């Protein structure tokens, strides 16, 4: 099983709150290896607090086989990191040193994603080839195990940007394809990229590479992904998404409920972005995790692969599927599933 980003809210430990304690949820559903819950991969798009909150707790409670990281954000923004981001950087540095020595097993592995020039200088030039993922490459390997035929990750970013660019634009961007029993679901993760970088990404990658079935709306359904500072539509982004979306594609806003209208200076989600996504995908093919089913007790958002359904699963049956392994379902769950067994990939040491 793989996890992309983390926002563990202690408020979720209260049964009356709509959020979930994500790490507690993971501990329930992960397979146990050597007496510990085992997560094959943790990928961090960028170290803003709402993308890595709880990482120190996760590291303490779960065996993480491999970290996926783009180091540029840490090199250019050495300060102003939350405690969990600092912990992630320390753990990434520890694993990087071991990988460069060539003696890293499950629990110590790291995959570094970046431009080709990143690997021309130390310490990244000392990494073995299987720990390097230049932008534009892909992999079928998860913590040392080749999952060809069921899993592929294609790395689309970070792109080269100016040093004074907002740190959101150094986000790891990737497409993950899950395949089983003739069903394929391709999920596009774009971190917190804004329209400038998104436009470049969509322009540089061909439509076949980008084609997706599920889009995780950039920056939690922020208007900055689709509109410029003047409020004008960034057509290179909206047109690019239209061209790359497969028939029946979905957009998922991983966010609190969508407001009825926007107010100046408000954090995402933004109504203007939600409405634009509706134009692109259709009202029946968009979902917000914070209000899926209900705002008080949201249902998990599940896309099934290889089961009775290929794609989006209605909330009435989604809870049972939220505990499925990596090759069975991709879940943007917001409430606790209730699994009956632990399943998933084991590590290769």
What does this structure look like?
- The structure is a single chain.
- The chain is α/β, with parallel strands linked by helices and 349 residues long.
- The protein folds into 2 domains: 1-137, no CATH class; 149-338, no CATH class.
- It has 10 helices and 19 strands.
- It has helices spanning 22-29, 49-52, 55-61, 72-76, 83-101, 195-204, 207-210, 235-244, 271-281, 315-321; strands spanning 2-4, 6-7, 32-33, 36-43, 63-69, 109-114, 132-134, 138-139, 141-142, 145-146, 151-157, 173-180, 183-189, 212-216, 245-253, 286-288, 302-304, 311-313, 329-331.
- The strands form 4 sheets. It has a 7-stranded mixed beta sheet. Strands 1, 3, 4, 5, 6 and 7 form a 6-stranded mixed beta sheet that branches.
- Helix 6 (195-204) packs across helix 8.
- The radius of gyration is 19 Å and the shape is globular.
- Mean pLDDT is 85; it is low at 320-349.
Describe the secondary structure blueprint for this structure.
Layout: E1 2-4, E2 6-7, H1 22-29, E3 32-33, E4 36-43, H2 49-52, H3 55-61, E5 63-69, H4 72-76, H5 83-101, E6 109-114, E7 132-134, E8 138-139, E9 141-142, E10 145-146, E11 151-157, E12 173-180, E13 183-189, H6 195-204, H7 207-210, E14 212-216, H8 235-244, E15 245-253, H9 271-281, E16 286-288, E17 302-304, E18 311-313, H10 315-321, E19 329-331
Parallel strand pairs: 1-4, 4-5, 5-6, 6-7, 13-14, 14-15, 15-16
Antiparallel strand pairs: 3-4, 8-11, 9-10, 11-12, 12-13, 17-18, 17-19
Helix pairs in contact: 6-8
